[in-house]
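Morning. Coffee machine broken again, so started the prediction first thing and wrote up yesterday's gels while waiting. Chain of 73 residues, entered below exactly as on the submission form.
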Amino acid sequence: MSPNALDNNNMNDPLHPRAIWIAVDEEEIIEIKRIKMDHDKAAAVAFFREVLLPRVKESLSALHQLVGANTHE
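Came back before lunch.
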């Protein structure tokens, strides 16, 4: 990680986004609400690792490919 990756002034760096959007379907929203209502920490960790983390990685990979493709033109 670069020294500036966590710098608050680094918000416009496309290689280190501060936020990304990911899509979740209806069943996943219901599961998130159930986890929250039940305070189910184990289910929350599992949901994060099995559902959210792969999507975030995929999103970041696509972003890096897009940024890389645009910088090589």
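The helical segments are 26-38, 41-71. Going to sketch it on the whiteboard this afternoon.
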